[in-house]
Design goal:
alpha/beta; six-stranded mixed beta sheet; 6 strands; globular
């Protein structure tokens, strides 16, 4: 199996990717890079069995319907603001982490979200079956949530200010995966230097968890909405050691 993790930014410059090959209880990094264009990403998609993208796969259903109604008839439904800002999967993540993910309808994550859905639409146009709930090859991931579930710091590891937290996080991640994940010292250093590259690595690990059914199942009552809005795959507690 090959899994791909994509830390998707609005532009190629900030987009990191990680491709991991899995075989007989071990895993090896095949590529770890920055600066992926859409063409680069489609090329990597062709090499992967499961693809985790750190960006929303859709919008809150009430928001999408409100925009449609306003565009067509200048009608704005009587909907509470949180319903317009957050998806059902965001609510589940909030319950698990104690904090909200970024809102795809009202935060800066909206621009990477637009790039993500364009990539999915292009894949669909080429014959790919897209399941926004994660049932196909593509799955929506949230690296900070996965780190929280696996017991690592999920706050304060971003950017230049987070380098000390990130260094400790990378050291602990390397220790916990040392028996089965082959990653050069240089690549671990790159993860310490860049939270984007670290998130791409985590996204590739979560992709593996999703592929082998080590993520929390979607509640049956939420499945239809997940297929419309997208759904963040949350790995199960203790699943990191079960990935190889």
């Amino acid at each position: 199996m090959v899994t791909l993790g994509v830390d998707l930014a609005s532009r190629p410059k900030g987009t990191a990717t990680c491709l991991i090959g899995w075989d007989r209880g071990s895993a090896r990094i095949e590529t770890l890079s920055m600066g992926a264009t859409d063409a680069d990403l489609h090329g990597l998609f062709g090499r992967a069995d499961k693809i985790g993208i750190d960006a929303p796969f859709g919008w809150p259903a009430p928001f999408a319907r409100a925009i449609t109604a306003y565009s067509a008839e200048t009608i704005w439904p009587a909907t509470d603001l949180p319903q317009l800002r957050f998806r059902r999967t965001d609510e589940v993540v909030k319950e698990r982490l104690g904090r909200w993910p970024l809102s795809v309808s009202s935060d800066l994550i909206a621009v990477p979200g637009m790039r993500a859905v364009r990539l999915l639409a292009e894949a669909a146009a080429n014959g790919e079956s897209i399941d926004r709930s994660g049932g196909g090859r593509f799955v929506e991931v949230y690296p900070a949530a996965a780190l929280h579930v696996w017991g690592f710091p999920s706050r304060g590891y971003k950017g230049a200010k987070g380098v000390k937290v990130r260094a400790r996080l990378v050291r602990d991640l390397a220790k916990q995966t040392a028996d089965w994940l082959t990653l050069s010292e240089e690549d671990w250093e790159r993860c310490t230097a860049s939270d984007d590259i670290l998130d791409a690595l985590v996204a590739a690990l979560v992709s593996r968890a999703a592929a082998i059914d080590r993520c929390d199942p979607i509640p049956p009552d939420d499945l239809a909405l997940a297929r419309e809005e997208g759904w963040i795959a949350l790995p199960q507690t203790g699943s990191l050691a079960q990935l190889p």
